[in-house]
Amino acid sequence: MDDHDQTKKPFRLRSQRWFDDPQDPGMTSLYIERQLNFGMTRAELQSGRPMIGIAQTGSDISPCNRHHLALAERVKAGIRDAGGVPLEFPVHPIQETLKRPTASLDRNLQYLSLVEILHGYPIDGVVLTTGCDKTTPAMLMGAATMNIPAVALPGGPMLDGWWHGRLAGSGTIVWEARKKLAAGEIDYEGFIEMVAASSTSVGHCSTMGTALSMNSLAEAVGMTLTGSAAIPGPYRQRAQMAYMTGVRAVEMVKANLRPSDVMTKKAFENAVMVASAIGASSNCPIHMVAIARHMGVEHDLSDWQRMGAAVPLLVDCQPAGRFLGEAFYRAGGVPAVMKELLDAGILHGDVMTVTGKTVAENLEGLGAPDREVIRSFGKPMKEHAGFIVLNGNLFDSAVMKISVIDKAFRDRFLSENPDVFEGKVAVFEGPEDYHARIEDPSLGIDDRTVLVVRNCGAVGYPGAAEVVNMQPPAALIKQGIMALPTMGDGRQSGTSGSPSILNVTPEAAVGGGLALLKHGDPIRIDLKTRRVDVLIPAAELEARRAAWKAPDLVHKTPWEEIYRSMVGQLGTGGCLEPATLFLNILETRGES
Ligand code: FES
Ligand code: MG
């Protein structure tokens, strides 16, 4: 690792080019002058101490990350004690549950806002505050593009929620409550009360949804301190971790330890393994591929199929299991899972992490986990629990989360041949169309129907809507049919336990095969060959393709138009394609 060998070449901090450049006193004076007006002193600015940015993702409209406003004080204390100078700054906010039309539209905007700040301001290293779903990938993507010393600080999950004496996990309880409402078991008041029961304290979603999954993968890929991902938001250990993360950021600048030293191909492979073992959100493949592309690392969906599909599920967390973030943390959290995988010989132990040590070194001397929550590799919750990556005559790629397929679903749909399902499609033009028509008896939806939703991809519903986990019509739910196979070019919430075929690439709005489906078309899903095919003659499919016209997209904001003009598909990370060409900006553009 001579890249960050300090003895090799003493380096001048980039912040000194702003604050201490005797060759250009005019600019230096301007840079210093306004930084003084809130009490900063010239001595601090010219001390030659690392300036450490704290990328603040919390605000009143981002409740999942709002706790970072308080945690930042502990980060600053750590930075000061380690000999650095903290500079907290806001980035474009994202709140998963509040932003219309989709929070994922803003992942790339938060990424851009971070890159622009890190590039344009005197920052030597950065603490990335992560939490709510898209904030974690956005922060890691920005750190990857800039490649300055960076360490992530997750905000942690909320405390466990309870409803009528049992655990109420964020998001997951919503899907259950909707079914109870549809079945007439609860009314509107009861519905809101049930959903609200999951919101207990500061912190992000308590289930193994996208937030806890992506923070766990930030740790797995080496970008957080060991054990940081799962500490609940209100715990004292969370604030202590904030302090230690601040300390570490300064040390990383002194050691010149950069994202490119940490987020290597092997590190992404480790993240794939951990994703399967924790039962991670179906949004994780999209985000990890995006981070890797911004890092310039070759990593795509084929790695998820090749390495992750056969890995067992070890963690008993909702939606694939029973528990929530608090139990996961107390049972040992991400380090316990990584140790299990390392001992099984499927994790790379020799990759560098932000701690300055390797994965194997970080896990040395770790005690045994609570087996109620984190199972052993030899006795997992489920075998072969990763994602499978599908293709066929309708699309190039889609993912399916195997860990959430329960026995009842398998038995009902896959009994004749455990891997093949044949049925007819009911096609919806988007979530609004689904809600308007799902109860229409003339659609003839029965227990052999595949529900398909289209126009929900990165371009179609800008950002890609989380809508594929459609529930059956109320009449079927009342008969006890709680789920149908679903497929779509959108995404689904990581808190959903629905075994959907998701993230279909290319999407309908750019002419992907879903655009060509007609209501009632026969379809075959074969999990063994990992193919989905519409069973109509190839000539008919081609005729429909020739007749297809691109939809008129209505841009509601300038950003929607800019985003749509340059976003790629979900299968390749949903990145702003031109941005993926900017690698290691400071060095490749002569500004290091
Ligand atoms: Fe923010 Fe789930 S809504 S973490
Ligand atoms: Mg979500």
From TrEMBL:
It holds the Pfam family ILVD_EDD_N. Residues 372-573 form the Dihydroxy-acid/6-phosphogluconate dehydratase C-terminal domain. Residues 49-362 form the Dihydroxy-acid/6-phosphogluconate dehydratase N-terminal domain. This is Dihydroxy-acid dehydratase family protein. InterPro entries: Dihydro-acid_dehy_C (IPR042096), DiOHA_6PGluconate_deHydtase_CS (IPR020558), ILV_EDD_C (IPR056740), ILV_EDD_N (IPR000581), IlvD/EDD_N (IPR037237), Sugar_Degrad_Dehydratases (IPR052352). Belongs to the IlvD/Edd family. It comes from the Bacteria. Gene3D superfamilies: IlvD/EDD C-terminal domain-like (3.50.30.80). It comes from Falsiroseomonas selenitidurans. Keywords: Iron, Iron-sulfur, Lyase, Metal-binding. Coiled coil: none annotated.
